[in-house]
Amino acid sequence: MDKKKKTFMPTYRSLWLVPATTVMVSCIGKSTAPNIITIAACGIASSNPLLISLAIGVNQYSLRLIKEMGDFVVNVPSHKQAYVTDLCGSASGRYVNKFAEYKLTPGRSVKVKSPYIVECPINIECTLWKSINCGNHELVLGEIQLVHIDEEILDEKGTIDPSKFNPLVSFQSEYWNLGSMIDKWHYTVRKKGE
Predict the structure, then answer these.
(1) Total Cβ atoms within 10 A of residue 102
(2) Residues 156-172 as b or e (16 or more Cβ within 10 Å = b)
(3) How many alpha carbons lie under 13 Å from residue 29 in its C-beta half-sphere?
(4) 131: helix, strand or coil
(5) In total, how many domains does the chain have?
(6) 3-state DSSP call for residue 101?
(7) Fewer Cβ neighbours under 10 Å: the N or C end of the chain?
(8) pTM of this structure
(9) pLDDT digits (tens, 9 = 90+) for 71-108
(10) Which helix (H) or strand (E) holds 64?
(11) CATH assignment of the domain containing 71
């Protein structure tokens, strides 16, 4: 049975048909206060080397800071932090000290100069691996150097317990949370062999 599908010409909104992790990226320049930019286009780029990808507008203040310092921190907020995440994406760090204005705490990173956001449950320290111009955005690839995870969201095995942490995602230019797990990767193959 064929399903009826409607076709659409590609537009900016077409980009947001793919759900994406929403993150707050913290960075610092050589002579500036630390900054935060909200990125609704974060993904996994490679497992060897361990790379995270970010799409950042070419005119963004934070892109200049990331290139200047050569590092950044990907801070993963919970769905309960949607408001402050949206605030950080609605003002420019050129004019607003977002850490001070939005009462966020800069944590001291171990491997990079950019601070992490203490209030975010997951913080991923990255060095700039490569930046590729893709038109009005740059694809920023960061190599993971160190990960911080709040102990309160870990289970007894030391892995993230999804019942204790529900990340913020973007879908159709809206903020969402994840809901519930269906099963682990490759469950269809695993169940055939059982």
Answers:
(1) 18
(2) eeeebeeeebbbbbbee
(3) 12
(4) strand
(5) 1
(6) helix
(7) N
(8) 0.92
(9) 999 999 999 999 999 999 999 999 999 999 999 999 99
(10) helix 61-69
(11) 2.30.110.10
